[in-house]
Write a structure and sequence with these properties.
Blueprint: H1 2-19, H2 29-53, H3 64-67, H4 82-87, H5 89-94, H6 97-110, H7 113-118, H8 131-139, E1 146-159, E2 166-177, E3 183-194, E4 204-212, H9 216-224
Length: 225
């Protein structure tokens, strides 16, 4: 308040001096600059207090990812579901083939390209040694025009034992076209194998997949979901 009073006094003195023919010579320039700076600081602090008081809860930042719904369609938050597998190598190494399918689906939804590549078996036909070119290829085909909201697991089965064990997961991937809001889906049976205990913490890696149309009996279920 004292700074504002000083500023008002200086302005009045300036006006008086101008009318008396003395102009700015009656007001020390340093004093006027100090008063203006002090008044500006006071105004800025008040504005800051108002903005802090009017803040709304954000869905991002600290804790935001934890409450964000997981794209795979589970009832859990992203960081408690697929996000944990995406960001923690140990969690990925302990994940079941079903969980890896969900995590790969969510990786496409969130453009987590490093996980898509890292969860692919070296013997997969699409595996590339030129990682940067592979990343560019996935980026250009990452379902940008679709919203990925649900990955429904139909069945999970195993063949063999030990390091030679193979896992098959059948699932339906549902998508919504961004512009038309049209729902679409495809069914796939994915095959997973491990590449060794010291590779990706012994995690299941996507080796191959057979894509099919969704059976008629499941299409109605997909459109209603």
């Amino acid at each position: 308040m004292r700074n504002l009073t000083t500023l008002l006094f200086l302005i009045l003195q300036l006006i008086h001096g101008t009318r008396s023919g003395h102009g700015l010579s009656l007001i020390p320039i340093r004093l006027m600059s100090t008063a203006l700076f002090a008044a500006k600081q006071t105004k800025t602090k008040r504005a800051t207090r108002n903005s802090v008081g009017n803040r709304t809860k954000s869905s991002s930042g600290f804790g935001g990812a934890a409450i964000e719904a997981c794209p795979c369609g589970s009832s859990q938050g992203y960081m408690k579901c697929c996000g944990k597998i995406h960001n923690d190598p140990k969690s990925y190494g302990q994940a079941t083939p079903e969980q890896v399918v969900r995590a790969r689906y969510s990786a496409y939804a969130k453009r987590h390209i490093d996980f898509i590549i890292g969860s692919t078996h070296p013997l997969n036909k699409d595996f590339m040694t030129d990682i940067q070119h592979w990343k560019d290829t996935i980026t250009n085909n990452c379902y940008d025009n679709f919203e990925l909201k649900k990955c429904e697991i139909l069945e999970e089965s195993y063949e063999g034992e030990g390091d030679e064990q193979i896992a098959n997961v059948k699932f339906i991937a549902s998508m919504i076209q961004v512009d038309t809001r049209e729902r679409t889906a495809f069914m796939e049976t994915s095959t997973f194998e491990r590449a060794g205990k010291h590779i990706r913490e012994g995690a299941w890696l996507y080796k191959s997949g057979i894509v099919e149309a969704v059976p008629d009996k499941d299409e109605a279920h997909v459109s209603d979901s």
